[in-house]
């Protein structure tokens, strides 16, 4: 029985900042952002969008009534959790009107959370072949205004339906993984922005990749020439390329050219949204599938997941017949086309708008937010969510 990705889609807020203009405002050469880290636009979440609404809006794009009835497990990967007790998955489950006979949980391990969700989903489907699992990766990356990490912020979510006999990608069983207790990136519960040792984190990202890649080759007997593409977790789009370059000479020249071309296709969406933490690897996968014209059914795709702190994993999938028929290419193109650029001043104002943490009541103006699901305010220490279709 094949198990894998039956559906996949993403959602990003309707506002963005041009990275050239952000560079000018920060007295930085624009090429440092556009070429140095490879970012062009950065998605900005209004106060009416949080990780729950982003995830729910992403899922809305891909689910139908059959899914709503058959999904009996919702796994929400995030490192931007809104509650220390209640999972974001429960909110999403309700907002989407899913089958009540379901498990709903939240998973946390930095940017690795959605990958952990996929691996749990595979086990659930193996035991329950008629079931479907909704896996979500949703985050708002915040480092603060005028910080070294500001240019690697972003906001968005990816939603995936994992099932038996998937229409898009069948996940192979062999994978390699690694854990080490390191402090390259973290966010204490008292802070709404992250702490990061950027140079150390880059080093560990590459170290983990080369380690799990060697483990994977030993486990699987496969080599780089067996791959059409490798997707990477992308805190910024140049990061994956740095890792790929450490192994690319293992392949013949034709494979090298193919991997590099497909890598560029895999970064298109990320460079226009920014870092979405748990969803970044899967946003890269969506970008590859929808932007690359080289891929064919039967192609093997590698996936490298890295979550600071740190956990890394390398695993693989095989593209299924007619997989392009089940992508959301048109909807995603419309989402990008409908976004609005905001000025640096507007971005800074939005960034500093915060949800009350003292129990006070608040109502948020959602008239400019086109999303179907949004955060309307706070009342009695509870977030007030709205689905416009209900």
Automatic annotation (TrEMBL):
GO molecular function: hydroxymethylglutaryl-CoA synthase activity
UniProt KW keywords: Transferase
Domain Hydroxymethylglutaryl-coenzyme A synthase N-terminal, residue spans: 2-164
Catalytic residues in the record: 79 (proton donor/acceptor), 111 (acyl-thioester intermediate), 233 (proton donor/acceptor)
UniProt domain Hydroxymethylglutaryl-coenzyme A synthase C-terminal: residue ranges: 180-247, 253-354
Family under the similarity heading: Belongs to the thiolase-like superfamily. HMG-CoA synthase family.
The protein's name in its UniProt record: Hydroxymethylglutaryl-CoA synthase
Provenance organism: Carnobacterium viridans
């Amino acid at each position: 029985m094949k198990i894998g990705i039956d559906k996949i889609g993403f959602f990003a807020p309707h506002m963005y900042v041009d990275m050239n203009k952000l560079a000018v405002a920060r007295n930085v050469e624009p090429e440092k952002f556009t070429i140095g880290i490879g970012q062009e636009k950065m998605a900005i979440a209004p106060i009416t969008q949080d990780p729950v609404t982003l995830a729910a809006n992403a899922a809305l794009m891909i689910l139908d009534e059959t899914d709503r009835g058959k999904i009996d497990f919702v796994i929400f990967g995030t490192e931007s959790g809104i509650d220390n007790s209640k999972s974001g998955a429960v909110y999403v489950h309700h907002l989407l009107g899913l089958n009540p006979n379901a498990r709903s949980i939240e998973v946390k391990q930095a940017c690795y959370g959605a990958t952990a969700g996929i691996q749990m989903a595979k086990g659930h489907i193996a035991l329950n072949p008629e079931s479907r699992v909704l896996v979500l990766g949703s985050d708002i990356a915040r480092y603060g205004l005028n910080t070294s990490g500001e240019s690697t912020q972003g906001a968005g979510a990816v939603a995936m339906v994992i099932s038996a006999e998937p229409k898009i990608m069948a996940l192979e069983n062999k994978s390699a993984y690694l854990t080490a207790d390191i402090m390259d990136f973290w966010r204490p519960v008292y802070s709404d922005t992250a702490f990061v040792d950027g140079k150390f984190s880059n080093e560990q990202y590459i170290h983990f990749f080369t380690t799990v890649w060697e483990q994977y080759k030993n486990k699987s007997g496969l080599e780089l020439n067996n791959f059409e593409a490798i997707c990477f977790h992308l805190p910024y789009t140049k990061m994956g390329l740095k890792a790929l370059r450490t192994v690319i000479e293992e392949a013949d020249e034709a494979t090298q050219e193919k991997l590099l071309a497909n890598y560029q296709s895999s970064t298109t969406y990320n460079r226009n949204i920014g870092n979405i933490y748990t969803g970044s690897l899967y946003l890269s996968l969506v970008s590859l599938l929808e932007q690359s014209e080289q891929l064919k059914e039967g192609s093997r795709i590698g996936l490298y997941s890295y979550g600071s702190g740190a956990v890394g994993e390398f695993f693989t999938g095989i593209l299924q017949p007619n997989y392009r028929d089940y992508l959301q290419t048109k909807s995603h193109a419309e989402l990008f086309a409908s976004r609005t650029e905001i000025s640096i001043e507007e971005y800074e104002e939005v960034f500093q708008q915060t949800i009350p943490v003292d129990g006070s009541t608040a109502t948020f103006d959602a008239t400019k937010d086109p999303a179907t699901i949004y955060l309307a305010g706070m009342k009695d220490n509870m977030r007030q969510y709205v689905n416009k279709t209900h």
